[in-house]
Structures are given as C-alpha cells and as structure tokens.
Input
Amino acid sequence: MSLRAKKSFGQNFLNSPRVVTAMIQASQVHEGDLIIEVGPGKCVLTKALLATGARVSAFENDPRMIEHLQEIFAEEIITRFHSAEAAANAHKGAGNSLKHGEIPDDVPEVIVKLEAGVTDLPISAVLNRAGLVKNAAGAKDVLSRGVVFVDGQAVGIDFRLKLAESRVIQAGKKAIARVVLQS
Output
C-alpha cells in the first residue's frame, strides 16, 4: 500500500518487524486476551496481535485506512473459514467483477488532448479530463482514499502521465479507461 502518513491524524506507520516482535513480547499478550487497538494503520501490529490468538478490536479514523483494513481482513476471514481460492474470488460474489488494481480485458480508450507545449499532466487532471471522475473534487477524493491505479499499481497525487503514454487508469472500483495523452 502506497499511502503516506498524514500529520492531521498524527500517523506514524509501524514497519519494523523487529520492533513489532519486541512490542508483542513486552506486552505479554496471550491467547484469548481482548486488545483494543486505536489507529491500526497498515495492520502490521494488528496481524502480530492476531497471530498470538488475541481478540483485537481495531478503531481507525482515516477513511483511506478503513478501506485497506476491510480488504485485508475480509480476505483473511474467508481464507480461514473457507479457502484461499474462495477469498481470491469473494469480490465477484459481492457484485464486483474486479478487485482494486485488476485490469479488465475490454478497457475503453480515452484520448486526452493537451495544449501546445504541454508534455505531461498530474494524475488529478488526467482523471478529470478523461471523465473518470465528475470534477476536481472527485479526483481529490479518490486520490486521498488511495483508490487510483495506473497499470494495476496504486499511485498518489504526485503521479504524472506523460505525452504519448498509454496507461490503464482506474479510479475507484468502476471507473476505468486506457488513457493516452496527445498533443
């Protein structure tokens, strides 16, 4: 996941496996213990707590992280009680033919015309001009939620599309197109 920590949420993402191991050992968490986790972020500590057999109730305030948590733990629960194959295909049963980042076979092509001398555009402008969002606010929203993918890879607000590149761009679950910038 390519999300950056937001100062407004006071976020600092835990990434070090060594630190997580030390935290678990120092906390003396046991199977069946109830742990309340505030701000699980990217779930690094959450997964380690669950591996001890503890029950974890996680509370997250950042909408970008909530969607991430739902995806991670929905797949884990389905795998645990059904199978990995069932988890991999669960999104189809929920009415979604694709998961975030997956590229369908029949992607429509959208040509975005650039003004003379312009050689690239920020992803927010590409989303808007290609009709993948309704307006600039819609582009800002999908980018802040981390649900914009270019050729199947999550991108942030700093991503730019260059002249003559052909890229499959997905904004959310349903808005998708092969976008080409032309002069």
